[in-house]
Design goal:
mainly beta; Neuraminidase; six-stranded antiparallel beta sheet; four-stranded antiparallel beta sheet; 3 helices; globular
Length: 488
Amino acid sequence: MLIDTRAPTPTSRRLRVGALLALLAAGALIGCTGPGDSTTSTDGGFARRVLARGLANPWEVTWGPDGHLWVTEKTAGRVNRISVTDGTVQTALTVGDLMATPNAQDGLLGLALHPDLLRSTAHQYVYLAYTYDADGSATATDRRAKIVQYTYRESSHQLVDPVDLITRLPASVDHDSGRLIYGPDGTLYYTIGDQGHNQYTLWCEPIEAQRLPTQAEVRGRDWSAYVGKILRLNPDGSIPSDNPVLGGVRSHVYTYGHRNAQGIVFGPDGKLYASEQGPKSDDEVNLIQSGRNYGWPMVAGYKDDKSYVYGNWSAASDCHSLRYSDFVIPSSVPTRTESSFTDAAFAPPLATFYTVSSDTSFQDRKCAASYFICWPTITPSSLDIYTAGAVPGWGNSLLVTSLKGGAVYRLPLSADGRSVGEATELWRSVNRYRDIAVSPDGRAIYVATDAGGLARDSSGAPTNRLDDPGAIIEFRYTGPRAGPAASA
């Protein structure tokens, strides 16, 4: 498996939504929910079972303290509890003010459970992140995101009493990111992407992943500089007093320079990891550290001047008269090499999928209708960590899901959690794997799939004929339990 795990080197707009949505098209959505197949098949020592089908783009899947899977449906705005025994779906909430654009990346996204949920009488909280229309009129749209706290009423299995923690966060139809996690330090972490700027129909919109918020913006609750960032919030939405001071300002911003970080997970020792989608190469797996700069758009992957140069279309004086291309940068578009970026706060990735040479062709004929399917990326969509001892050799591993590749990649972590080994590909299918969850005993792994969109078929060419659209798939380990040596 080709993966680059080199050691770090020193050193007020109107979106043209219609055209962009054609590029982001995710296919027809399925509006019903219900149990999946009762039959199983064996795949690499795991029994494969479709637990539930017909979900409207399941986006987050999390193991709950009630022994159920908690699943968000991005398009329908539902929060479901799904039985791992028979796949029965029970809806705990349908978000009322959701804005979910067909074939786009907005909608009901991240979900996080308070660690005290169902374990004490206090803090029966579930946190959701989703997009909504902040304008509210019939003549205009102001797409924004917010994080909302709900209380779980166990007697009725419903989420009630919503409390907005933070509102009017940046949102788009593209690169919203949207992962939400409750950290072991008692704070919430949330990822926001670069909004899909500087490409496709948004090519004249600047990438602001490097821009830091000013004190005036923070004071005025203007979060526009939060794009391309990972945020850290107190559970009431306020700014933690120990957040990093960046550019002389303390804000919700924890790290910056991110493109589209759709995966985030804590290790057992408190280290935070994220997976991030690259442009035409260099998907990343990162160790997230307070105040660090992860390079985008100046750097994709390692700072090595291989296959990537930053073409700043938005800075071209004739930008709106240009025609965007993924392969040719016009002379009027300013460019910048990775090696010219010298920020001391830059943090290189732990690994990339994939770093390729400068002479790589990104125009494979078999993907001519949709070149991106053949680009050397996996499109990582989520991240989890495996720490159980149930599966021999898995011990301490990161699990990364792939959208266009329809697979899960396991990356073994070093003892200190600061590097990863070679990736192993698991459970390849013609699906778009969206999120992943691990059962507490480590013997079952659950994967959510998109309801539509493009993936690679068995020959590597684009297809929208998915094997299991809008499903939750269980991979249950059927082999011998790992002994102490194997666990280590």
